[in-house]
Amino acid sequence: MQKLLAYFRKIAGPAAVMAAATMGAGSASTFILSGAWFRYELLWAALFILPFLVIAVDSASRIGLVNKDQGMFSLICKHIHPGVAWLILAINIPVHLFIAMGQMSIMTSSTLSLFGYHPPATATAFEHSNYQAVEIILSLSFAAGIAWLLASEGYQRMQKFMTAFMLLMVICFFIVAVRGFQEITAILSGFVPSLPEDLPVPSQDIVRSSGISLLAIIGSVLAPAAMLGIPYMSADNRQAGAVDFKREFRKSVINLGLFFGANSLFIIIAGGFALFPLANHAEIDSVHEASRILLRAFPQGFEFIGPTIFTFGMVIAGLTTFVVTVEVISYFILDMFGFPWHHTKENKRFKRTVITCIVVPAALAPFWTFPALFKNLLLMGVNTVVVPLVFLAVIIILNRKSVMGEHTGSIPRNIMLAAALILSVVISIIKLPEFIQSFSG
Fold first, then answer.
1. How many domains does the chain have?
2. Is residue 394 within 8 Å of residue 417, measured between CB atoms?
3. pLDDT at 186
4. Which of 104, 155, 212, 299 fits 236 for a cystine, CB–CB 3.0-4.6 Å?
5. Secondary structure of residue 301 in the 3-state scheme
């Protein structure tokens, strides 16, 4: 037990927090549907993006380690332009409000489904049921627990919980995927880069595009909140004395490369093994539907365990993304408006801000069914504008000697960041026509 606790302390840190958040329900949905539609053929994409994720998040983390009392938005204002900071903030706040609401809905619906409680199938039946009342109570209960986690103590408590949640998610999704490893030959072939043929949906005028799934896998990992938020967490986590950059990089590799990477592969393998063989696998279009029919993950007689464990993993995934979302929104707002932003037990302004950021989406989530078009517009807008802008901001600030001193980015690190920037621009350009078409429609 002591060895386990010692190892836990070694991996705990901002990188573990961001790994837990990146493992959220959005990424899980992307990965499970990739497996359901294309079996193991896009496993290579989940592996391909990991070095970019590790270098991008670790580079942003170094900015916070070197600048303990200057937030990322303050640095963008000072060293790039205030207009850039305000643009990023103006886009991120509403988008992350929607993300928090979505994660809360996933948490409540998944928790209720664990007890066999599902929303009525028709609007009339829904109106005459008590489902929404139960969902409201559960949403506010989650909000109260999260408020205790984030507001009763400082940053360190949240970090410990999030590291534990990350490990719990990896265990859950590994259990669901483990039976799929009997198809090891097919799994290994999935690591050879290739693009499978598009998958038509029978009796529907819909095609599951392998190219879009590929972009979704890559885009779900290159999240702007991770790069913008981890400098604040790294500053709050920094101990007195010199910074050990090698140790922090090892943590990034372990948490973002190893644990997040393994988790991504486990989910794709679970979908490829349990869902792809089904006759209607092309028709599966939501993580809720996928989780309900994830029966082949366990042998006959134990089929019910698969959906239960996967759904529990989704509750944790929604929780971790929600926690990081409200945490980083609080950092962003306070820093941008010039208030003390450190997450400490004594910072009452941070506590008030984070509680507001918790309660608002938790209270709204049970009442608001997202218009799919509006949600897609927001998320596509973030990918189109913010992701390349954030990469560019990280590269500029990382290479300013007035900011980083002797710790400016090395040539290999800058090459990786430049490649990630180009990749994010390519994804944005490809998605831009869809964004414009949806907006005009």
1. 1
2. yes
3. 93
4. 155
5. coil
pLDDT digits (tens, 9 = 90+) for 362-414: 999 888 765 544 454 455 556 667 888 889 999 999 999 999 998 998 999 99
Q: Where are the beta strands (DSSP E) in 135-266?
A: 199-200, 207-208
Which amino acid is it at 375? K
Q: What distance in Å separates the CA atoms of residue 90 and residue 377, rounded to the nearest whole number? A: 15
* Sign of the torsion angle spanned by Cα atoms 351, 353, 354, 355: positive
Q: Show the domain range for 177.
A: 2-440
For residue 207, give the H/E element and its range: strand 207-208
Residues 6+ apart with CB under 8 A from 42: 34, 190, 196, 210, 213, 214, 217, 268
Q: Which residues contact 341 (CB under 8 A, 6 or more apart)?
A: 71, 232, 330, 331, 334, 335, 347, 350
- Give the C-alpha separation, 335 to 426, whole Å: 31
3 state SS of 70: coil
> Which residue has better confidence, 316 or 379?
316
Band (pLDDT 50/70/90 cuts) for residue 339 is very high
| pLDDT at 88 > cutoff 50 | yes
Phi, psi values for residue 342, rounded to 5°: -60, 135
Tell me the two tokens of residue 429: 């350009």
Q: 343 falls in which pLDDT band (50, 70, 90)?
A: very high
At residue 199, the 3 state secondary structure works out as: strand
pTM > 0.85: yes or no:
yes
Q: CATH code at 404? A: 1.20.1740.10
The label of the residue with tokens 């989530």 reads 365
Distances from the Cα of 427 to the Cα of 88, 213, 294, 375, angstroms: 18, 12, 31, 18
109: helix, coil or strand?
helix
Both tokens of 254, joined, read: 């372990």
| Angstrom distance (rounded) from CA 85 to CA 79 | 10
Query: What is the spatial distance between Cα 380 and Cα 438, in angstroms, rounded to a whole number?
Result: 10
Residues in the chain: 441
First-to-final CA distance of the chain? 58
CB 311 within 8 A of CB 304: no
